[in-house]
Structure formats: structure tokens, C-alpha cells
Design a protein that fits this description.
This protein is mainly beta. It has one domain: Glycosyl hydrolase domain, family 43 (Tachylectin-2, Chain A, 5 Propeller). The chain contains 3 helices and 27 strands. The strands form 7 sheets. Strands 2, 3, 4, 5 and 6 form a 5-stranded antiparallel sheet that branches. Strands 7, 8, 11, 12 and 13 form a 5-stranded antiparallel sheet that branches. Strands 20, 21, 22, 23 and 24 form a 5-stranded antiparallel sheet that branches. A hairpin with a 2-residue loop joins strand 22 and strand 23. It is globular. It starts with a helix and ends with a helix.
Length: 312
């Protein structure tokens, strides 16, 4: 791939210490990455608190863990979650708001949202964008975001830029695929969502993770050369989005790699993967290492450095 070639050239020229794509490692095994499906970590700006999704299959909750003396605490259900199926938290870069997906009713007393995507119905498995706001004593009550961004009851995977603009996914005009959208935030209001130009709906694109300054997005896609859903990075220069770059077969596995998220300094990629860890012959797998989604992490430095070099 072009990016990998550029990284190799940077190494030869002495401008980078990376000789090959870095290998992902599992994040907080046995604590945050557990025996159920764990995904979508959203960190506070100081990196000491993380919110993430944990699912047993039909039901998902948002959990919270704190970094204490170098270790992550046992996760607890977030104050705004637990009753409905909530998932995919996304922290604003300033830590003041958190946007998440929920199937909770639009109005009190209603029924959970139904979803329709990938060409079929999913009773009770729809999603809308909801928000909580940081207050002196914790998070506010959840508020459903305006219909402008919640036109579809199959809206998922929010990501918040520094100016409040919102990236997310919803079904394309062809409901067999997902497409990525951006809703600008201007003078305190969301604008009409626009499809991202590199996501045309001909393949499934999911889970955008946008850098705070909107200089790049990492997302999952079924486009070539993906085997299932693979991770890609796309850069934005002079207000123009480039061509998505496959993150390679070291970061991506033969299974599903999705739910991209960024560290507070946006130089580490977190993502969900159903891969198994590499074990020596005869070793026993831990209970978290069972083929369900775990959270993995990998440095984005090779791709960020390569792009910075070619755009000088």
C-alpha cells in the first residue's frame, strides 16, 4: 500500500523510527476487554476515565472505568445507562459532552426503536443519537438530538469534532449498505447532514473516528481490499478529503475490525476486533480471549508521519 511504502521511505531517510506497521495489543485485558463484547472507548481529555460499550448480544450498556495508580478500575454502569440498549459513546474533545447511541423511546412510555439496515428489519435494535452534558455533580439526563441528525432510526457510531460537528453512520439510499455523514454545528445548531465524499454508499462504511481538527478520519469499510470490515484512514488537506488508505494486514485481521476510536492526543487508534491473541503452543486462553469483540490499540504514528512528510 502507498502509505506503507511511504513509511518505508521515511525509515530509510532517517525521518521515522518505524520500520513496519506496528502490531495491535489488547487494551486492559480481563478488566475492560472482558469475556463479553467490548468496544468503542471514549476517553476524557486527561485520559484517566474511559466510557465504553459492553454487550451480551441483545443488550448493550455503557460502562465507565478510571485509571488508578496505573491500573484501570473494575467497570461500572454509567449513570445515564443500564435500562435501555446503549452503546458507542463519543466524548467531545473538551470533555463537556458525551454523545451515544440508544434504542430508548423517543418519548416517555414508548417502545424501543426498531432498526432497518443491511436490507432487513431488527426489532428493538434501532438507534438514535443522544447526549449528556457534564455538570458539577456528574452527567445530565440524556437528551435526544434533533431530528435533523436523527432522521433515521438506524443512526449509529457518533464522533464529535472540536467545533461540535458530528460524524456518524446511517443506511445509504441502498439500505443494504451504511454510509458516513457529517453534520456541521453552526451557532449552536446542527446543519443538514452531508454524506462524506469518500463514502458513496456503494460499499458499507462504518464507525468514523474524526480527529478534533477534522484533519483525518479512521473508519471501517467493506471496500477493497477488506476481507470483511477493515480499518482505513483518510486525510483532509485544504478542505478536500483524499483517498482512503487501508491500514494493512497487521492492524486488520481476517475477521472483523471496526468501532474505531482515537486517544485524546489522536495518535493512538482503539478499535474492536474479534481476533484471538497469539499464544505459544499448549498455552491456555484467558476467558476474555474467546473470539468476541475486545478492544485493541495501535499507534497511528506511521500513517500520520508519512502523510505529514508528503504534504510538506
Amino acid at each position: 500500500m502507498l502509505c506503507n511504502l511511504l513509511v518505508g521511505l521515511l525509515v530509510l531517510s532517517g525521518t521515522s523510527a518505524w520500520a513496519a506497521d506496528p502490531a495491535p495489543t489488547v487494551f486492559a485485558p480481563g478488566v475492560i476487554s472482558g469475556p463479553l463484547h467490548d468496544s468503542a472507548p471514549a476517553f476524557t481529555p486527561d485520559g484517566t476515565t474511559v466510557y465504553f460499550s459492553r454487550s451480551d448480544g441483545p443488550h448493550s450498556s455503557i460502562l465507565v472505568s478510571h485509571l488508578e495508580q496505573g491500573r484501570w478500575s473494575q467497570p461500572l454502569t454509567a449513570t445515564f445507562s443500564g435500562q435501555w440498549s446503549d452503546m458507542e459513546p463519543s466524548m467531545s474533545p473538551d470533555g463537556r459532552t458525551l454523545v451515544f447511541i440508544s434504542n430508548r423511546p423517543k418519548l416517555a412510555g414508548g417502545k424501543p426503536l426498531d432498526g432497518f439496515f443491511m436490507g432487513r428489519s431488527f426489532p428493538g435494535a434501532g438507534g438514535n443519537l443522544w447526549m449528556v452534558t457534564r455538570q458539577a455533580d456528574g452527567w445530565s439526563m440524556p437528551v435526544r438530538l434533533p431530528k435533523m441528525v436523527n432522521r433515521s432510526d438506524s443512526t449509529f457510531a457518533p464522533s464529535v469534532a472540536a467545533d461540535g460537528s458530528l460524524y456518524f453512520m446511517r443506511p445509504a439510499d441502498d439500505p443494504k449498505h451504511f454510509r458516513l455523514y457529517r453534520a456541521a454545528y453552526v451557532h449552536g445548531a446542527y446543519q443538514e447532514p452531508q454524506p462524506l465524499p469518500f463514502s458513496d454508499g456503494s460499499t458499507t462504511d462504518v464507525d468514523p473516528a474524526v480527529a478534533p481538527d477534522e484533519s483525518f478520519v479512521v473508519f471501517g469499510s467493506s471496500r477493497a481490499p477488506a476481507r470483511q470490515i477493515d480499518l482505513f484512514i483518510v486525510f483532509r488537506d485544504k478542505r478536500q478529503w483524499g483517498t482512503p488508505i487501508h491500514l494493512g494486514d497487521v492492524v486488520n485481521s481476517a475477521g472483523s475490525d471496526a468501532e474505531a476510536r482515537l486517544s485524546p492526543d489522536h495518535r493512538t487508534l482503539y478499535f474492536a476486533s474479534d481476533r484471538l491473541s497469539d499464544l505459544p503452543p499448549g498455552a491456555t486462553r484467558a476467558d476474555w480471549d474467546n473470539g468476541k469483540y475486545n478492544i485493541w490499540q495501535v499507534s497511528l504514528a506511521p500513517w500520520l508521519e508519512a502523510h505529514a512528510h508528503v504534504t510538506k
